[in-house]
Amino acid sequence: MTEAQTEQTGPANRVSGIGRLLIAVYGVLALAATGRSFVQIVRAFDDAPLAYSLSALAAVVYIVATIALVRRTALWYRIAWFTIGFELLGVLLVGTLSLVDPALFQHATVWSVYGSGYLFIPLVLPLLGMWWLARHPPAPTGSRA
Fold first, then answer.
1. Percent of the chain at pLDDT above 90?
2. What's CA 86's distance to the chain center, in Å?
3. pLDDT score for 72
4. 145: helix, coil or strand?
Protein backbone atom coordinates (compact mmCIF):
# COMPACT_ATOMS: atom_id res chain seq x y z
CA MET A 1 0.00 0.00 0.00
CA THR A 2 1.39 3.42 -0.90
CA GLU A 3 1.75 6.24 1.60
CA ALA A 4 -1.07 8.15 -0.12
CA GLN A 5 -3.38 5.14 0.22
CA THR A 6 -2.39 4.63 3.85
CA GLU A 7 -3.00 8.31 4.52
CA GLN A 8 -6.54 8.12 3.17
CA THR A 9 -7.62 4.72 4.45
CA GLY A 10 -5.37 3.98 7.43
CA PRO A 11 -6.89 2.91 10.74
CA ALA A 12 -5.66 6.10 12.41
CA ASN A 13 -8.24 8.17 10.59
CA ARG A 14 -8.71 11.19 12.85
CA VAL A 15 -11.26 12.74 10.50
CA SER A 16 -14.38 11.00 11.74
CA GLY A 17 -16.99 11.64 14.37
CA ILE A 18 -15.84 14.07 17.00
CA GLY A 19 -12.58 14.51 15.08
CA ARG A 20 -14.51 16.32 12.36
CA LEU A 21 -16.03 18.65 14.93
CA LEU A 22 -12.62 19.32 16.46
CA ILE A 23 -11.15 20.12 13.04
CA ALA A 24 -14.13 22.34 12.21
CA VAL A 25 -13.72 24.34 15.43
CA TYR A 26 -10.00 24.73 14.78
CA GLY A 27 -10.82 25.89 11.25
CA VAL A 28 -13.33 28.45 12.50
CA LEU A 29 -10.84 29.76 15.07
CA ALA A 30 -8.18 29.92 12.35
CA LEU A 31 -10.46 32.08 10.21
CA ALA A 32 -11.60 34.23 13.15
CA ALA A 33 -8.09 34.82 14.48
CA THR A 34 -6.73 35.52 11.00
CA GLY A 35 -9.47 38.03 10.25
CA ARG A 36 -9.17 39.67 13.64
CA SER A 37 -5.39 40.02 13.50
CA PHE A 38 -5.41 41.24 9.90
CA VAL A 39 -7.89 44.01 10.68
CA GLN A 40 -6.09 44.95 13.90
CA ILE A 41 -2.67 45.09 12.27
CA VAL A 42 -3.85 47.03 9.21
CA ARG A 43 -5.97 49.54 11.13
CA ALA A 44 -4.11 50.23 14.36
CA PHE A 45 -0.94 48.18 14.84
CA ASP A 46 0.76 51.04 16.71
CA ASP A 47 -2.02 51.09 19.32
CA ALA A 48 -1.18 47.64 20.70
CA PRO A 49 1.62 45.90 18.80
CA LEU A 50 2.08 43.11 21.36
CA ALA A 51 -1.61 42.24 21.50
CA TYR A 52 -2.05 42.35 17.74
CA SER A 53 1.11 40.32 17.12
CA LEU A 54 -0.14 37.69 19.58
CA SER A 55 -3.46 37.54 17.74
CA ALA A 56 -1.53 36.95 14.49
CA LEU A 57 0.53 34.23 16.20
CA ALA A 58 -2.67 32.59 17.43
CA ALA A 59 -3.98 32.64 13.85
CA VAL A 60 -0.87 30.85 12.57
CA VAL A 61 -1.12 28.30 15.38
CA TYR A 62 -4.78 27.57 14.57
CA ILE A 63 -4.04 27.25 10.83
CA VAL A 64 -1.18 24.81 11.40
CA ALA A 65 -3.17 22.85 14.00
CA THR A 66 -6.10 22.52 11.59
CA ILE A 67 -3.87 21.20 8.82
CA ALA A 68 -2.03 18.88 11.20
CA LEU A 69 -5.27 17.38 12.50
CA VAL A 70 -6.52 16.73 8.97
CA ARG A 71 -3.33 15.03 7.83
CA ARG A 72 -2.83 11.44 8.95
CA THR A 73 0.91 10.84 8.76
CA ALA A 74 3.28 10.37 11.67
CA LEU A 75 5.01 13.67 10.85
CA TRP A 76 1.77 15.65 10.94
CA TYR A 77 0.79 13.85 14.14
CA ARG A 78 3.96 15.17 15.79
CA ILE A 79 3.32 18.63 14.34
CA ALA A 80 -0.23 18.50 15.76
CA TRP A 81 1.11 17.63 19.23
CA PHE A 82 3.69 20.42 19.10
CA THR A 83 1.24 23.00 17.77
CA ILE A 84 -1.54 22.17 20.21
CA GLY A 85 0.93 22.06 23.11
CA PHE A 86 2.23 25.47 22.06
CA GLU A 87 -1.36 26.69 21.85
CA LEU A 88 -2.11 25.55 25.40
CA LEU A 89 1.08 27.17 26.68
CA GLY A 90 0.18 30.40 24.87
CA VAL A 91 -3.36 30.48 26.22
CA LEU A 92 -2.16 29.85 29.78
CA LEU A 93 0.69 32.36 29.58
CA VAL A 94 -1.22 35.16 27.84
CA GLY A 95 -4.35 34.46 29.90
CA THR A 96 -2.42 34.71 33.15
CA LEU A 97 -0.44 37.78 32.10
CA SER A 98 -3.60 39.54 30.94
CA LEU A 99 -5.04 39.10 34.43
CA VAL A 100 -1.88 39.78 36.45
CA ASP A 101 -0.64 42.76 34.40
CA PRO A 102 -3.44 44.13 32.19
CA ALA A 103 -1.22 47.06 31.16
CA LEU A 104 0.77 44.65 28.96
CA PHE A 105 -2.24 44.24 26.71
CA GLN A 106 -3.78 47.58 25.81
CA HIS A 107 -6.25 45.64 23.67
CA ALA A 108 -7.48 42.06 23.92
CA THR A 109 -5.90 39.17 22.06
CA VAL A 110 -7.46 35.88 21.05
CA TRP A 111 -5.88 34.33 24.16
CA SER A 112 -6.50 37.20 26.65
CA VAL A 113 -8.19 36.11 29.87
CA TYR A 114 -7.91 32.51 28.65
CA GLY A 115 -9.93 33.21 25.51
CA SER A 116 -12.90 34.82 27.26
CA GLY A 117 -13.71 36.80 24.10
CA TYR A 118 -14.18 33.47 22.34
CA LEU A 119 -16.25 31.80 25.08
CA PHE A 120 -13.10 30.19 26.56
CA ILE A 121 -12.88 27.89 23.55
CA PRO A 122 -9.12 28.67 23.22
CA LEU A 123 -8.64 27.25 26.73
CA VAL A 124 -10.69 24.09 26.26
CA LEU A 125 -9.78 23.32 22.64
CA PRO A 126 -6.13 22.32 23.14
CA LEU A 127 -7.13 20.00 25.99
CA LEU A 128 -9.67 18.31 23.73
CA GLY A 129 -7.12 18.24 20.91
CA MET A 130 -4.52 16.53 23.09
CA TRP A 131 -7.09 14.03 24.32
CA TRP A 132 -8.10 13.31 20.73
CA LEU A 133 -4.50 12.91 19.54
CA ALA A 134 -3.70 10.55 22.42
CA ARG A 135 -6.66 8.35 21.47
CA HIS A 136 -5.91 8.40 17.72
CA PRO A 137 -2.20 7.87 17.07
CA PRO A 138 -1.04 7.37 13.48
CA ALA A 139 -0.96 3.87 12.06
CA PRO A 140 2.43 2.19 11.98
CA THR A 141 4.07 2.77 8.59
CA GLY A 142 5.60 -0.67 8.35
CA SER A 143 6.86 -3.57 10.37
CA ARG A 144 10.50 -4.48 10.79
CA ALA A 145 11.39 -8.14 10.55
1. 74
2. 8
3. 82
4. coil
